Automatic annotation (TrEMBL):
The keyword Membrane applies. Residues 415-438 are annotated as: Disordered. This is VanZ family protein. The chain crosses the membrane at residues 29-51, 72-90, 96-114, 150-172.
Length: 438
């Protein structure tokens, strides 16, 4: 940063000297203008972290969000001096305004496309930069009391701005992938959003818990976001948002919970389970009280589990068609004390259209193995296809498709001292085409 400041100061002095030698009016204002311009370009294009040349931009639909973030306000303030000194140096408001509107677009597209520039292309940055520049232009006009050349350079400014606008649109449509988001940071739920969270928790647990904070993590392209819901001393619940179709609860994510046996939702009339049959009866009692539709599922099973969350049993209910698990489902985890320690429910449809032909589990495993052979030795890899499930291509809005989840485990891998480093990898394949869905 010190080096950038020194460079900006030198370039500012050179700009002032050049303007003075050419007898340009108001030459003194060129020094701070070039100083600020150099600083902005240096901070946004040279001193940013991240991955370069990703050819992606975030299109933030929440226009008010950056007004409530530190980064957004910083982006606003950063461009105010540019607009101000632009008007003071040029005394021509139209080119100054055009400059502060075009520069943010140039910066963000450069961050997206240039291989030597790091940073995240975000429409919220354009919004706040342009807004700050416009405020600076307005401040300059106030200081000059409107005594500027309003029509000077008007025609060439309009022409150049139009050309740049067309180029920008062409680049965005042909060279950049836009990831649409309903906000780019975690925010508090509002109005109907909070009502949806409270309704989901009430259906799962009745009046047992009072909902506290509800935070929304927006997803890409307006889908696959989540609500994090606070109750029972922590944030144990996640609700798929928008739509609220899927609720996941894990009481292991609660604060001050003590031992596993002492936490979770108590099912009325439930005792201590002594095996799979007892655990199933408790889970069934819970299901009938809260999600009675699962009684008509075409398949259910209870299995013992032993993982990082401890021991217990999970009972699953599924609706199947041609061996494909439909979206609607329910999983209930019972801990050794007979309490509901976790659950996941999907309120999607019990039947969705399926392609006439679907690849087999064996073929899915072969496809993954063939892909692995292209990059490395597959000896020692255990490749197994899991259940054939359904998912939507665009969260809660796109068409449904059948998907194979193929788990790849390297049996020759040696974990590190903490037991990590050898976790299985999962690859999802479209069961109709065999193409990767990732």
């Amino acid at each position: 940063m010190a080096g950038l400041t020194a460079v900006a100061a030198v370039l500012g002095l050179l700009a002032w000297d050049m303007a003075r030698r050419r007898r340009i009016a108001h030459a003194g204002w060129w020094a701070p203008l070039v100083f600020c311009l150099t600083g902005v370009l240096g901070v946004t294009l040279a001193l940013r972290g991240g991955t370069s040349g990703r050819a992606e931009c975030v299109a933030n639909h929440d226009l008010t969000e950056p007004l409530y973030t530190t980064q957004g306000l910083w982006n606003l303030a950063m461009f105010v001096p540019l607009g101000l000194f632009g008007v003071l140096a040029l005394r021509r408001p139209l080119p100054a305004l055009a400059g502060v509107l075009a520069l943010p677009v140039f910066i963000e597209l450069t961050q997206a496309l240039a291989p030597f520039v790091s940073g995240i292309c975000d429409s919220a940055d354009v919004e706040m930069n342009a807004g700050g520049g416009a405020l600076g232009v307005a401040a300059g006009l106030v200081l000059l009391r409107g005594r500027v050349a309003w029509r000077a350079w008007a025609a060439p400014t309009v022409a150049v701005t139009a050309v740049l606008a067309v180029l920008g649109v062409v680049v965005c449509r042909t060279a950049v992938t836009l990831n649409h988001m309903d906000g780019s940071s975690v925010r508090e739920a509002r109005g109907d959003e909070r009502v949806a969270a409270e309704r989901a928790v009430h259906q799962a647990f009745g009046d047992r818990y009072r909902v506290g904070a509800v935070r929304i993590s927006p997803g890409l392209d307006g889908y696959n976001g989540w609500m994090n819901i606070q109750f029972a001393g922590g944030f144990p619940a996640e609700l798929m948002w928008p739509g609220g179709r899927r609720l996941n609860v894990d009481f292991g994510n609660t604060a001050g919970m003590g031992s596993m046996e002492k936490v979770g939702y108590t099912v009325p009339g439930a005792g201590t389970p002594h095996g799979t049959a007892d655990a199933y009866r408790i889970a069934r009692t819970y299901m009938r009280a809260h999600y009675a539709w699962a009684e008509s599922a075409s398949w259910h099973a209870t299995r013992a589990v032993h993982d990082s969350a401890g021991s217990g049993w999970v009972t699953s209910w599924r609706f199947k068609d041609r061996g494909v698990e439909m979206p609607r489902s329910l999983d209930v985890r019972i801990n050794p004390a007979g309490r509901v320690y976790g659950m996941q429910v999907d309120l999607g449809p019990t039947r969705v259209p399926l392609p006439a032909k679907l690849i087999s589990a064996r073929r899915a495993e072969e496809i993954v193995r063939e892909k692995r052979r292209k990059g490395a030795d597959t000896t020692g890899l255990r490749i197994e296809a899991g259940p054939l499930t359904t998912e939507r291509t665009m969260g809660h809005t796109g068409p449904w498709r059948a998907v194979w989840s193929v788990v790849v485990t390297d049996t020759r891998c040696t974990p590190d001292a903490d037991g990590d480093g050898c976790e299985p990898m999962t690859e999802s394949l479209d069961a109709a085409t065999g193409e990767s869905t990732g």
